[in-house]
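BACKBONE GEOMETRY TOKENS:
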Amino acid sequence: MDVSIVIPTKNAGSIFDKVLSRVFAQDTQYEYEVICVDSGSKDGTLDTIRKYPCKLYEILPEEFGHGKTRNYGASKGSGEYIVFITQDAMPASKKWLQNFIDAMKMDPEIVGGFGIHYTYPNCNIIDKRDLYYHFKNFGEDNTIFQLTDENRERYNNEEAYRHFIVFFSDNNSCVRRDIFEKYPYKDVDFSEDQIWAREMIEMGFKKLYCPFAPVYHSHNYKLSDYFQRYYDEYKGLYSLHKFIISTGWHKIPFQIAKHILGDARYIRTQKLSKREKIYWVKYSVCRNFSRYVGGYLGGKYAGYPPRKQRWLDRHISQQYKQRNV
């Protein structure tokens, strides 16, 4: 078997049928299998999976973990390469898999790669902007990243560069099985992919960015969900980079205002009605409040006493709810 495609699922919704349809419509020379690990779906996800020639494994919701569930799914396959996608990441090309594996084979020292994300047509304008420029930064062609004598000092001293070098996304990623079985994902709540990528980069291996292996992947979360998501995200970023979004509560209002101002300038350039522009500025106000306040709580998490950590997780963390609902 050349490739094992691993997809964790839970209440995937109607989009998942389209995802699997695109996965099984790939135009590729590589032999591949699809492995789904479901953690307690209560909608029609299991029925959707059974429509296709997938291998299905079911676990309890409380057994789910971003790292350990993907490790489990990978262990059930035999492909030389393991491709991870999420239940809402839809291949945007029939050559997605072919291009991904071809690129992984460019250099024997490449141990992992990630592909570009396109936004769905209904994506909000803030994420459309952010995703476009985020992936554009990695290059227009297949690009290999490695820690060398020439960039090591910059890597050690520049936080933004360090984030850039180790970025990895298992919404659309590929890893070599021989390396992954030796160095699997850590059992963590968040950022399992970037923790792994940092480990590989610092061990001297190479990482790939493949813009020719695209998926559609974007979200229109309810504004009320962003507080939880930013809490989890910045909790993970602290464990990975010791990064905190703000050095103090007193700075947060100014950071929020600066971010809103930047969004407003961008919104003003868009071909929107006045009413739509007002709506998106209000959206920016709510979202950036969640980003900085939720992110600050998540980033400071490691310094809180265990009782406060448990309270925050129960009342804020989306990851906690995913395991316990």
Q: What stands out?
A: The first strand starts at residue 3 and ends at 9. The mean pLDDT is 94. The CA atoms of residues 84 and 207 lie 15 Å apart. The first helix runs from residue 15 to 23.
